[in-house]
């Protein structure tokens, strides 16, 4: 579907949703589901639109996922936000219209170069790369002329409106886009072979003279031309399929270079011609390492290569490397111009790869710098809370623990401590697999804050989780004489007012709660530390509201969703990341087995055995895409079977998204207290629930879950001392599905699995399911380029420390690109 109609449908849906009062009823089948799919489709269209549209759309997608769980004001806020941005989105997607000016980041006055440049063609401005929006200086060539890389592709020879439209599909609107459209592979046609040397089938390139042709029609509509080429060392039969025009272009007697595949038929070599060029002008399609580009229907490789032949020498030299020269001088990578040249006309495969790495380095460097810059603009001027070292209290706290901290816990705690002592507000993400021991890390930060005379607040996404945290923290901090209050939406008025008073006058140092903490009435005397658990359940805005209660407070976000290190920056760009990658010793591995559905009788026996031993079991039913109805049906069916037929003597509960909040809480509560033996549920139980007596997790239709989700679900068991089991029931498996099951059986290390998942599905899919906004990289390969990413990030950090405001002359192009490309990152 065209983006115009997608956009219009979305517009209508948004209006309807406003109209019906944010009940998710604006569209048949649900507004949120509809809008999400529209956004996903639009995101595809927006891939190459300048600005952070990809990230923004992805962010909304993510928020829409929990639309129904949100209170009405949150829904309204989201819908309004989308609504307000729709026009800008239309503008950004329209090739004919100028892009909205960067507004979010305070931009420095734009000095236009030279004498009053005439911006005659508004079409020009559509390309954000155009020099018209850039500051210029003495070292910047006046690339506003038609020879700049911002030139629209349509003005090239051989590119009319039709081909321009096709190129647009590939995300190519300007010459610059073309130059950064990278080949996805290469064919080595650089080495000429003499015909006498040809022994084996494979790709070859030979140079010789055409001897003769003869046409042959094996069946109607298929023309095969056979011929011969002679290079002095021998005669090689050649075959041209459907290339009727070639004999006329290269008649017998012409000296040509021919590339193609050699096959052997009845022991005789035969060359299936892929490319043929005149020897005099060979070098575009043959006789070199040939790039193969991601193409689209109607645009062939020859045409694309022809374009590069046309633009490279003319435009590439005026590309300006945004990498500051002092950094570029230290990093062992080719110059940008050289990199682009080697990417399209490589001297060797190594040179092409080096070129790609240079472009990838730039992408990562740019994004990383942008995050730092944006964050600085947002909070750089805020004087943060400076917490005390509080050595004594911390030592005492740790000495009272029944175990010693793992190396990873110690490392992460010191990272947090350093942030807390600094005068810049902390902004840190703590990633740790379930059971990694995040609680004690967070509690250490609380001890430090309270010992420094500040208050700390922890927000959890559900009442159940908040209660668990409250209980955990109360016992952890009891010895420290640090009372922990618990604030929920459902607590009595008297008690509630007591807590509010205590927070306001500072007599309560620590509070744990849900969204209830966000309410206006909740005020703190000296809030110094905000901790948010399971961040993906919270909107960015909620994070901001809680933080807003004290701008200077340090923020620690905890998540049990492991993201490979290489992706963390793209996903959590504005947060520093700490990783707890070592588990407390002595933890038993959850025994994990993949079985077919014929194994149910055995599963029932296992469940009965465990329940008899005083344990509990989860049975999770598959989420069927886009259909809450059948979702529900599956759970209800399994519940009926278990409660009526299989375990009529046991207490079986059911939990799904259609239940009211209180109903859900009540069911969880009963399971938590051991009043239910078996809980049949949809994935609503996914996050953070801790029932130590639960030892079996049965996942039905396991093929429908991604690795990350399977791992999350498995994390619900194995939390006590007893041996736990995870049974994956799946019948029809794709190859990838089989690998997923195998990975689950082999490992229960969340980070290992996340890496595996990333490899299996690639970053797009991996992040897609997580609904995170990520800016797209074209050259950087998040899997292969881990080392490069580290290096580029390190250099970005280094440079941002040297020139935080990007004011140095060496930062000029960098600053321009950061503002231009990432002016909306402030959404995060
Ligand atoms: P999560 O990261 O999932 O929040 P928790 O903080 O709940 O993990 O810790 C899981 C369990 O491990 C808790 O029972 C906790 O007491 C225990 N634990 C934490 N750190 C250690 C350690 N260093 N040694 C032994 N047990 C630990
Ligand atoms: Mg936890």
UniProtKB/TrEMBL annotation:
SMART domains linked to this entry: DEXDc, HELICc
Task performed by this protein: Plays a critical role in recombination and DNA repair. Helps process Holliday junction intermediates to mature products by catalyzing branch migration. Has replication fork regression activity, unwinds stalled or blocked replication forks to make a HJ that can be resolved. Has a DNA unwinding activity characteristic of a DNA helicase with 3'-5' polarity.
NCBIfam families for the chain: PRK10917.1-3, PRK10917.2-2, recG
Reactions catalysed according to its record: ATP + H2O = ADP + phosphate + H(+); Couples ATP hydrolysis with the unwinding of duplex DNA by translocating in the 3'-5' direction
Top class in the EC scheme: isomerase
Family per record: Belongs to the helicase family. RecG subfamily.
Keywords: ATP-binding, DNA damage, DNA recombination, DNA repair, DNA-binding, Helicase, Hydrolase, Isomerase, Nucleotide-binding
Region annotation Disordered: where it falls in the sequence: 100-148
InterPro entries xrefs: ATP-dep_DNA_helicase_RecG, DEAD/DEAH_box_helicase_dom, Helicase_ATP-bd, Helicase_C-like, NA-bd_OB-fold, P-loop_NTPase, RecG/Mfd, RecG_dom3_C
GO terms for biological process, alphabetical: DNA recombination; DNA repair
Protein name listed in UniProt: ATP-dependent DNA helicase RecG
Domain Helicase ATP-binding: 419-580
Compositionally biased spans, kind Low complexity: 116-125
MF-aspect GO terms: 3'-5' DNA helicase activity; ATP binding; ATP hydrolysis activity; DNA binding
